[in-house]
C-alpha cells in the first residue's frame, strides 16, 4: 500500500512548494514570485489577477529598498501573469516526450532562480549612485550574486531632510492659498456691499436680518484715475460694468491705496465709459473733417450669394461706393 505524503500533494510542477511571502536579501527571483502566487491561488483562493497584484506589491518593496526604479504597476502585473501562463502551457504538455517540449522545460527551470526583472527601461539613467547600478547588474546575472546591505545612515538622513523641506514647502503653499482665498472673499463681500448701495434702499425692518457690510464713508470718492486709454482697454477686452468694478477695485487695493477715495461703482464707471466713448467718437469725426480727402471709398461685405460661374459655388458680394 502506497502512502501519499502531504508535501508531494502540495508540490507544484517544476517549482516546488508554495510560500506565503518572499524572503531573502536579494531581489525576488522567478521562483519566489511564482511560489507566492500559487500560495494565494491555492490556499487563499484568490484569482490569478488578484494574486498577481498582491505579489507585485510585495515584490516592489525589495526594489524600493534597493533604490531601483521599477516599471508601472500594471506592466509588472502583466509580466507575472505572462510568466504564469508560460508555466501553465508547460504543465499541459508535461507528459509529452518530444525534444521541443523537454527543452522548454529545461530552459524554464534554469531561469527560475534568475531575477524577476521589473526594472524601469531608464533605470540606469535615473539612478545616481554607482553602487545601486552595480547591484542591479549583478542581480541580472545567473544566480543573482550579491545581496542587500544595511541602511545607509547618511543617505537616509539626507533624504529625510529633503522630505521634511518638501513637506514644509507644501504647508507654506497651502497657508498662502488659504490666505488668498480669505482675502478674495472679503474683497468680493465689500464689492457686493458697494453695489448694493447703488440699488434700492433696504427697509429698516429688514436691517436686523441682513449680514452687516463693512463700514464705509457716506460720500463717494472723487479722485479720477480712469483715463481714455484705460476705457479703451476695458472695451477691447469686452468687460462688462460689473466685471470692471471687480477688476478696478482689486487693482487699486493691489497698489496699496484706499478704494474709498476713488469712484469705483457701477454707475460712475458706466458714466465715465460713456463719456469717453462719446469724446473719442467726436475726435474721430473732427479729425476726418479736418483731413477730408478728395476721393473716399466705402466698403462693406454683403451676404454669401451664388457665384455667376459653375466652378465656384458661393462668392462674397462686396459693394463699393465712390464719392
Walk me through this protein's architecture.
This protein has helices at residues 6-10, 30-42, 48-65, 73-92, 99-110, 123-126, 130-139, 153-198, 228-236, 241-254, 266-290, and strands spanning 297-306, 314-322. It has 323 residues and is mainly alpha-helical. It has a domain at 6-150. Helix 2 runs antiparallel to helix 3 (48-65) and helix 3 crosses helix 4 (73-92). The model is unreliable at 1-6, 198-217 and 313-323 (pLDDT under 50).
Q: How do the helices and strands line up, and which of them pair or pack?
A:
Layout: H1 6-10, H2 30-42, H3 48-65, H4 73-92, H5 99-110, H6 123-126, H7 130-139, H8 153-198, H9 228-236, H10 241-254, H11 266-290, E1 297-306, E2 314-322
State the helicity in percent bands. 40-55%
Fraction of residues in β-strands? 5-15%
What is the averaged pLDDT score? 78
Q: Can you list the strand order of the major beta sheet?
A: 1-2
Backbone structural class: mainly alpha
Largest sheet descriptor: 2 strands, antiparallel
Apparent shape? elongated
How many strands appear in the DSSP assignment?
Answer: 2
- Give the distance, in angstroms, between the N- and C-terminal Cα atoms: 123 Å
Q: Unreliable runs, pLDDT <50, ≥5 residues?
A: 1-6, 198-217, 313-323
Q: In angstroms, what is the radius of gyration?
A: 40 Å
Helix count equals 11
> What is the string of helix and strand elements?
HHHHHHHHHHHEE
Amino acid at each position: 500500500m502506497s502512502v501519499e505524503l502531504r508535501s508531494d500533494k502540495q508540490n507544484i510542477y517544476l517549482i516546488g512548494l508554495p510560500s506565503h511571502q518572499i524572503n531573502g536579501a536579494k531581489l525576488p527571483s522567478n521562483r519566489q514570485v511564482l511560489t507566492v502566487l500559487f500560495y494565494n491561488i491555492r490556499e487563499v483562493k484568490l484569482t490569478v489577477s488578484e494574486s498577481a497584484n498582491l505579489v507585485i506589491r510585495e515584490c516592489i518593496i525589495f526594489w524600493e529598498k534597493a533604490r531601483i526604479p521599477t516599471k508601472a504597476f500594471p506592466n509588472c502585473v502583466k509580466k507575472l501573469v505572462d510568466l504564469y501562463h508560460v508555466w501553465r502551457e508547460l504543465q499541459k504538455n508535461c507528459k509529452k516526450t518530444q525534444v521541443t517540449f523537454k527543452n522548454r522545460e529545461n530552459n524554464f527551470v534554469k531561469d527560475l532562480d534568475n531575477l524577476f526583472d521589473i526594472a524601469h527601461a531608464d533605470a540606469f539613467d535615473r539612478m545616481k549612485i554607482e553602487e545601486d547600478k552595480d547591484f542591479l547588474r549583478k542581480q541580472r546575472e545567473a544566480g543573482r550574486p550579491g545581496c542587500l546591505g544595511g541602511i545607509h545612515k547618511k543617505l537616509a538622513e539626507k533624504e529625510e531632510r529633503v522630505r521634511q523641506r518638501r513637506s514644509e514647502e507644501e504647508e507654506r503653499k497651502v497657508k498662502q492659498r488659504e490666505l488668498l482665498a480669505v482675502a478674495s472673499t472679503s474683497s468680493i463681500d465689500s464689492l457686493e456691499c458697494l453695489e448694493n448701495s447703488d440699488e434700492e434702499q433696504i427697509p429698516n425692518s429688514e436691517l436686523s436680518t441682513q449680514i452687516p457690510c463693512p463700514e464705509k464713508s457716506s460720500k463717494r470718492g472723487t479722485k479720477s484715475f480712469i483715463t481714455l486709454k484705460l476705457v479703451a482697454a476695458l472695451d477691447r477686452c469686452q468687460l462688462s460694468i460689473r466685471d470692471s468694478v471687480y477688476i478696478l477695485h482689486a487693482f487699486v487695493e493691489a497698489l496699496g491705496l484706499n478704494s474709498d477715495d476713488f469712484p469705483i461703482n457701477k454707475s460712475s464707471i458706466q458714466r465715465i465709459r460713456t463719456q469717453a466713448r462719446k469724446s473719442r467718437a467726436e475726435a474721430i469725426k473732427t479729425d476726418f473733417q479736418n483731413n477730408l480727402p478728395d476721393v473716399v471709398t466705402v466698403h462693406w461685405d454683403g451676404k454669401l450669394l451664388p457665384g455667376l460661374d459653375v466652378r465656384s459655388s458661393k462668392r462674397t458680394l462686396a459693394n463699393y461706393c465712390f464719392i
